[in-house]
Amino acid sequence: MPFTIEQLDFLSVHIGVAIPPAFIENKRRAEEFKNRSAEITSRSDEMKQRRDGAALEELLKRATTDASGKDFAAALKLLDQIESTLAIPEAPPPPPPQPKSADAPPMAKRDPGKDGVFVKLQTSRFQWNQTRDQVKAELASLEQVIFDEVKQINADPNEEMEFDLDDLAKKSKELYTILDKLDVRLLKTLDQALGAENELRAQKQKEAAAIVKEYQVILNSDPLVARIDNSGFMNTSIKQTFAKVLDNLASNL
User: How far apart are CA 176 and CA 138, in angstroms?
Assistant: First the structure.
């Protein structure tokens, strides 16, 4: 199966694989044509009922011919003509979405009288360590899927581009930089807090809380984290997993 534009973009931007811009742009136009022409085709009954329906169908045939010849720029211009014509008169707007209920379920509150400082620190350490292990496993699976799909592309004689597998193997390690940023400093600080008492424990707990806030900033600003779950290669929930545990830790420390 050929790469999608999302997959090519992810390989280029976040893995560092060298892909000619013209190749990516042509793939982008091909995918855009596929989606837009399918949408127009689904409106064939609407076109047939128009006085200019025959002309619109002819434009669609010409666009399909251009796309078959890989002249997607010309094909997309023809689709522009069809869509602009169909937009007159405009279809009635869709009904507004139903408002969500304002009565959200109340969030569970901690009972400070039932969880001591040591238990909170211990629980926080377990959650963060478990989360990093879970994400590491997801990243390893994603790396393997990318590698497997690239090998399939290389083996396909109809594909226009061949990838350097050795280069990909090196650059795919970029995925794991997420764990370098959301690192083990929190584990070390929590270990220090668990081994301390009184004022020193309280100080280490504050330091741990500050690290959690730092992680939350990284989570909401890092471009790889923002894109990782939409790589186009496999479904992951890395950002959501991190966000959930960091919210829990922030309320617990």
Answer: 10
| Residue listed under structure tokens 């270990």 | 191
CA angle 158, 13, 21 (to 5 degrees): 50
User: Cis omega (within 30 of 0) on the bond before 89?
Assistant: yes
Q: Which of left, alpha, beta for 70 (phi over 0: left; psi -120 to 50: alpha)?
A: left
Residue 179 CB neighbours (<10 A): 14
Domain presence at residue 226:
yes
Distance in angstroms (rounded) separating the CA atoms of residues 34 and 36: 6
Q: What is the pLDDT of residues 99-120, one digit of tens each?
A: 655 554 454 444 443 347 888 8
Q: What SS3 class is residue 162?
A: coil
Claim to verify: residue 65 and residue 127 sit in the same structural domain: no
Residue 227's contacts (CB-CB under 8 Å, 6 or more residues apart) are: 10, 13, 14
pLDDT digits over 122-162, tens only? Answer: 889 899 999 999 999 999 999 999 999 899 988 988 888 88
What is d(CA 146, CA 233) in angstroms, rounded to the nearest whole number? 6
Rounded to two decimals, the pTM is 0.62
Query: Does the CA dihedral 197-199-200-202 come out positive or negative?
Result: positive
Domain identity same for 125 and 242: yes
73 and 175 inside one domain: no
Q: How far apart are the first and last CA of the chain?
A: 48
100 within a domain of the structure (yes/no): no
CA distance 234 to 139: 10
Instruction: Identify the CA nearest to 63 among candidates 87, 85, 38, 46.
Output: 38
Within-domain flag for 232: yes
